[in-house]
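Much of our argument rests on the idea that a fold can be written as discrete symbols. Part of our work consisted of pairing the sequence of a single chain with a tokenised description of its backbone. We regard such an encoding as a compact summary of how the chain folds. The amino acid sequence and the backbone structure tokens for this protein are reproduced below.
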Amino acid sequence: MKNGIIIFIYNFENYIIHKVGANLSISKKWSLPNPNKNLIEHISKKFNISPITAQVITNRGIVEDCEVDEFINPDINQFLDPYELPNMHSGVACIQDNIKNNNKIAVYGDYDVDGITSTYIVYDYLKSLDANVIFYIPNRSDEGYGLNKHAIDYLYSENVKLIITVDVGITAIEEVAYIKSRNMDVVVTDHHTPVDTLPNADAVINPKIPGCMYKNPNLAGVGVAFKLVYALSGLSKQIIDRYCVFACIGTIADMVPLTGENRFIASYGLKLIRQTDNFGLKALIDVSNIDINNIDSGNISFGIAPRLNAAGRIDSAVTSVNLFLSNNCKNAEKLAQILDSNNKLRQIEEQKILEEALEIIEKDRLYEDNVIIVAKQGWHHGIIGIVSSKITEKYYKPSAVISINDDGTGKASGRSISGFSLFDSLNYCSDVLIKFGGHELAAGFSVEEDKIDKFRRKINEYAQCIITEEIATPKLNIDAIIDASQITIELCDELNYLEPYGIGNRTPILGIYNTSVTNVRFHKSGKHAFLSLSASNCSFDSPAFNMADDLKIYSNGDEVDIAGTLNVNTYNGVKTAQFLIRDIKPTDKCRIDIDNLRILFVCIKNFLASNITDFRINELSDYINREYNRRLGRERIKNMLKIFDELNLINFNVKYDCVKISKGDAYHMKCDIEKSDIYKSISEKNYNS
């Protein structure tokens, strides 16, 4: 018997661990690139960029010299011929006929940023032609999404002869038929996924129409509207310069892939924003505290877009359109302040609904479902989409938040995860829904209150067949592994060449392996942490925003791998490069010693004695820290559980950080730990040798 190696089983006082789903912190699976070194070296030399930047580019599937050149230097040649879109010829002809006959035209948009910018572009252009034009955006609370008969009746009463939809209409089969029954023309422009039947409009312009050969099927709604105006203008370059700014805002805000044509729209639009003469846009940038000379896609996503969206969520999206139409500074500043105030109200209401939704999810254990469906009466329709996004982010599961009206119907907004199409799942459940529409990752629907439980069962029935462990495990795609010495302003500046970032061209995630924690500090808010680290003879500090809970398990001396992004921090006029942590985990060789193994086995014995057979690893980690003042990370605990399983002390399964254990055949026997191959490979003494 080897001293200190044999583990004996003792009887200890039972401990109870409370299972609280809200404490869930999902471990991400790091996906590392398999770089083509020869290709990276070629691109690095030809385009005079670092191998790291070259690797980031190739990770996006950009490998040919011409593709790399287009990616680094997007230009107008990437702006496709609008007449390649289906039915563009007939749509343009219909609109031109109505302008020629001085018929009243209504531009019918959506209340999100994509719809707002689409409405502005088409309305403003038709107005510049002296067309008899108005615009209409439905009220989110009273009318809901898309075309509706109440709005059609109103427009008919206003003698409208043509309705042009922007960012809506592709699934409005009945509503378009109703428009035609009123002897009005209708041109549908949209980018959402069609159902089996297209609306019987005078023209349906959508890059997602089955059989469409358009090279960019991922245009935003504003992209389609932009192409329509460009076609109406006779392909005038002035139209691109005039409206690309607003197409850029809608494209970035709608989170479509920023590749190809979309990349040109976003890139060129960001350049034009810096010299915009639009009073409303300048006022909005000012109230958002954005430096107009250094504006980027992040400023659009987190500064401009939320304020534009806030109008439709809290009040009316008409305010946002009117902001862009402002013809003087004072009016623009007034409207921008209204949007800013609406955004602050939205944030307060969002937090309230989120807390109530999480309480329901925890109480009813809805987090155990594959798709989380949470409902309550009176939640604000305009905010539930953001709350759904937060829920999906927290649990990494598709979710939908339903606000139940006084009339017994529920309006809902949902968000999904990669690999699970929310639109397809709603289509599967269509027999229990009133209506639905949207994308793979975001959708809306309405449902009768007494059918919510049936809908919950049915969508989870569908998800059971679709969501695999692979889909349910969040991924973190690492673009390159770097050395700590490469955290430089030069590399930060070079990576900025790859802006704008967004879907399809995400901000590069870099990894640094084998760093040592020298200090952990927590912000007074309790949300953020700051790590001091050392690696490769370099010492550096890294912020970890909104990661305080994840970092509580780490202490001085822990060996960790970190993943994150680079940026330039300016303080007192001094610029420094910093590494912003996005994820952290113990190094692959998580150090394990006998004392920690003893403590963990005592905890396991206590759980089994209390009939606790399933728990989450982060709950076990918190328990050990609380009871034994030991900080053991998730990966280290997993490895120790694997050791116990290998020695047949326990039977152990883990799925999405949820652990299920039972007694093994050797549970009551003494055991030689050094018979474990896992222990021998990653034990403390082997780690240090």
